[in-house]
Amino acid sequence: MTVAWLAALAAALFTFGSFVWAVQRFFVRAGQPAPGMRAIALGGTVAMAADLLALGLARGAGDAWHLAGAALFGGAALLFWGAVRANRARPLTLAFSDDRPGHLVTWGPYAWVRHPFYSAYMLAWIAGAVAAAQPLLLGALVGMGALYRAAARREEAKFATSDLACAYAAYRARTGRFVPRWRTQPPSVSSPSRAPSTVSSGA
Predict the structure, then answer these.
(1) Quick one: CA dihedral 38, 16, 147, 160, positive or negative?
(2) Are residues 78 and 119 in contact, defined by beta-carbon separation less than 8 angstroms?
(3) What average pLDDT is seen over the chain?
(4) Where do the structural domains in the chain lie, given as residue ranges?
(5) 81-106 pLDDT tens trace
(6) Listed residue (76, 121, 80, 93) closest to 200, CA to CA
(7) 37, 69, 38: which is closest to 51 by C-alpha?
(8) Counting Cβ atoms within 10 Å, is residue 162 exposed (0-12), middle (13-18) or buried (19+)?
(9) SS3 state of residue 113
């Protein structure tokens, strides 16, 4: 047992605990969870358990792997909580919900990517594989990433048929879905108190 391994384990527990908290306490439930959301919940639970088990068995993987994984978990947690902060006034509904979008958030991490929650989740799956030095864990990134992509496309389709279609089209043109687009000038990241009334992409 090393300090680096403990740091990776603590970062994993905090990050995964944050994800569980959000599903239980932050995101709004619009009726019964859709099948897609249930698939995300089940897949995420299995992936988190696999990551923690692999990390528990990987104490001898090397401090470099553990520290790199801890840093990636830290990045995922920062991105996740940045997205929570951006939506604290009007929490989003769970993935695959049928509700129509009523607002669009464009500040904080949303100034760079349209779906920062999904980006944070995918970064966490990469972090788990790195922290445990176990490439097989990247299977979670592939499987869960496919679900996040389907959810993101569904959410963007809802915006395209809403009263926010024009605003969302302009927003979409300057941001990436999960990874920021290259730009010569950074987007505005001002808080809602400094920006005009804005609108929120799905969770």
Answers:
(1) positive
(2) no
(3) 90
(4) 3-174
(5) 999 999 999 999 999 999 989 899 99
(6) 93
(7) 69
(8) middle
(9) strand
Give Cα separations from 22 to 28, 38, 62, 114 (angstroms).
Answer: 9, 15, 32, 18
- Rounded CA separation 53/43 (Å): 15
Q: 176 by DSSP, 3-state: which?
A: strand
Of 153, 150, 151, 78, the residue nearest 120 (C-alpha): 78
Tokens of 59: 């104490």
Residue numbers in the chain where pLDDT is lower than 50: 184, 186, 189-203
Residue environment code for 49-67, b if the CB has 16+ CB neighbours within 10 A, otherwise e:
ebbbebbeebbebeeebbb
Which letter does DSSP use for residue 89 in this model? S
Q: Note the CATH architecture for domain 3-174.
A: Up-down Bundle (1.20)
Terminal CA-CA length for the chain = 37
Smallest CA-to-CA distance from 18 within 43, 48, 58 is with 48
Helical (H) or strand (E) element with 168: helix 165-174
Please compute, for residue 193, the number of CA atoms within 13 A of its CA located in the half-sphere on the CB side: 1
Q: What is the DSSP letter of 177?
A: S
